[in-house]
Design goal:
This protein is of the alpha+beta class. Helices cover 44% and strands 11% of the residues. The strands form five sheets. A four-stranded mixed sheet has the order 2-1-4-5, with no helix packed on it.
């Protein structure tokens, strides 16, 4: 998003540019995205409503319409080539689309191959696991056209399953996050009279790689793109140095549609665990008193039980339910524990202290962030202050944003002290012959004029390092029950929920966002609310880098020969892609007048 003046109306885009004959040229920068977003959103809502009504024939017809939709093609290509974190990563065809012309070409090719595309093998790469850098996790990178087709198919399949999904399934679903899963644990086990004080902390062994294809396709049923999904499941894997290998089970991690397929495969886990809900009366939607509570985030599951025996019974039932789906527990990571002992889940530590439940960042997560800070500071030896700020600021902001909804205040202060020690050590290494008083005067001071803190590292009032403790503790507001953004009846609920979300941004940017109701004036889409909130400290780090350094740039542009002001009507925050399109339309309008 960039600041821009919008008193001059955008030039209307001729219909043929976006919706005309497919052999016509497509000008990517002149596409009117607002109409296409609305088309896709309405179709998703209609699929959701028809599923709730039990009208399967209508669901299939609407899904066929979505799969043929040109709007769906354009939105999917934009998501894959312009917004996804992996847009710069190529599959076995070594093709990426990072320019407007390349994206337009991909959109035309995708739309031409809607009914004729044959899935290609994925490229196998390995990345370090988050918890253990010595272990590698395999990823399968599809070719760019496969990713675009998967995004199209996901828009048709996802609303159907959003209407069916269980209430406490939080992983890889629109509008839901890790914080919702943690919040569900807190509301279930909080208070001195909590009844569910035992937990089955379960981990599924290589869930993505072991999903049974036949059971998954049976669950999908008569979905119109069923054959294309089968093609992705059996397309095979190409690994440099090893060649091609067929895939007889599982769905490769790295595909756009893979998380959705995992959710489909694991649908029904709550019922299998013995969870029972009230269906009528004032308690409708609440868990029955003697029932366990199962909370799932992708392939990580926690079942909160009344006793150790109940937890063991739940584990046995789930093992029997998982077997036909090709899945088993990872016994090394699956444990039954009392909440007084505590357990780790999604990077958080959950434990009862003297009948009081506290959720904090896990010891493993703290160890990882301290180790990373130390490694980064060692690598930065010989660099200047600005290099330190550029490297550490996203790490600090990202980690603090992920853990700001739990008991983290003291830990944030402790990390600030640890980071100060690293910064002082870096400074003394850079100036071995200087006194400690010179070093303190050179690198530390009251650089943040809004805080009475003389130990801020930086260069001046415009360039200083943020602190963990500057991130306020903000309790997360849980998503309600089975609420989904695809439900048209809950449009007001989601609008109000978006307003309550406070992203970790500076006050000036927040003021502009509030003035605009957090929407881009050009496309009408939400500026910061992604399809899914960041799900880890690393994702928050990337979000901060992309949004505040690339997407949000406060630029007081010249308007009719006069400079804009930070608080004037001429400055707005818009998507960077919308800004480029706006300029392209203005250039086209000028060319037509001349």
């Amino acid at each position: 998003m960039t600041g821009h003046s919008f008193s001059t109306p955008a030039v209307a885009v001729p219909a043929w540019i976006v919706n005309g004959p497919e052999d016509e040229g497509l000008d990517w920068d002149r596409i009117g995205w607002r109409g296409h977003e609305d088309n896709v959103r309405r179709l998703r809502q209609r699929i959701f409503t028809a599923t709730q009504d039990g009208d399967l024939a209508k669901v299939r017809n609407l899904q066929k319409l979505m799969l043929r939709s040109r709007s769906n093609t354009l939105i999917s290509v934009r998501q894959v080539t312009q917004r996804n974190a992996g847009r710069k990563t190529a599959g076995i065809d070594e093709e990426v689309a990072l320019t407007s012309q390349a994206r337009a070409d991909v959109a035309v090719r995708v739309h031409h191959t809607i009914s004729s595309w044959t899935p290609r093998a994925v490229k196998r790469v390995y990345i370090p696991k988050v918890g253990n850098k010595n272990k590698l996790r395999p990823l399968g990178i599809p070719v760019i056209l496969d990713r675009c087709h998967q995004a199209r198919v996901r828009n048709a399949l996802e609303p159907e399953w959003e209407a069916r999904c269980e209430p406490k399934s939080y992983g890889f679903r629109p509008g839901r996050s890790c914080q919702d899963a943690i919040g569900a644990i807190y509301t279930t086990c909080n208070g001195p009279t909590a009844k569910r004080v035992w937990a089955l902390d379960a981990d599924l062994a290589a869930a993505f790689d072991r999903i049974d294809h036949d059971r998954l396709l049976e669950a999908i049923g008569g979905f119109p793109a069923r054959d294309m999904i089968r093609g992705w499941l059996t397309a095979g894997v190409f690994e440099p140095g090893k060649g091609f290998a067929p895939t007889e089970e599982g769905t490769p991690q790295g595909g756009v549609i893979s998380p959705l397929l995992l959710n489909v495969a694991l649908h029904g886990l709550e019922e299998a665990a013995g969870v029972r809900y009230h269906t009528t009366g004032v308690d409708a939607g609440k868990v029955k008193p003697n029932s366990p509570v199962a909370i799932r985030y992708a392939d990580d599951v926690v079942v909160l039980c009344h006793s150790q025996r109940q937890a063991e019974q739940v584990k046995a039932r789930l093992a029997e339910w998982l077997a036909p789906r090709g899945l088993v527990f990872n016994e090394d990571k699956t444990t039954i524990v009392s909440l007084s002992q505590g357990f780790d889940f999604l990077g958080f530590s959950v434990r009862r202290y003297h009948r009081k439940l506290l959720i904090k960042p896990s010891k493993a997560a703290i160890k990882r962030i301290r180790k990373r800070l130390a490694i980064e500071m060692r690598r930065l030896r010989g660099s200047n202050v600005m290099a330190v700020l550029a490297k550490l600021s996203p790490i600090i902001r990202g980690w603090a944003a992920y853990y700001r909804s739990v008991v983290s205040s003291k830990l944030f202060s402790s990390l600030d002290h640890y980071l100060w020690q690293l910064l002082y050590k870096w400074a003394t290494w850079s100036h071995a012959n200087k006194s400690k008083f010179w070093i303190v005067d050179q690198y530390f001071g009251k650089f943040n004029k809004f805080r009475n803190d003389r130990w801020v590292f930086g260069r001046d009032s415009d360039a200083y390092l943020v602190k963990f403790s500057w991130t306020n503790i903000v309790r997360h507001v849980m998503v309600k029950g089975t609420a989904s953004p695809d439900d048209p009846a809950l449009a007001d609920y989601w609008a109000k929920r978006r307003k309550k979300v406070t992203p970790p941004l500076d006050k000036y940017t927040m003021r502009l966002l509030t003035k605009q109701e957090a929407r881009c004036p050009l496309c009408g889409d939400h500026l910061l609310t992604a399809e899914q909130p960041p799900q880890s400290p690393e994702q928050w780090e990337r979000w901060w880098l992309q949004v505040t350094r690339t997407a949000i740039v406060a630029d007081y542009l010249v308007h009719h020969g006069k400079p804009g002001s930070p608080d004037g009507d001429q400055t707005r925050l818009v998507h960077a892609s919308c800004h480029r399109g706006h300029l392209a339309r203005l250039r086209g309008s000028t060319a037509q007048r001349t």
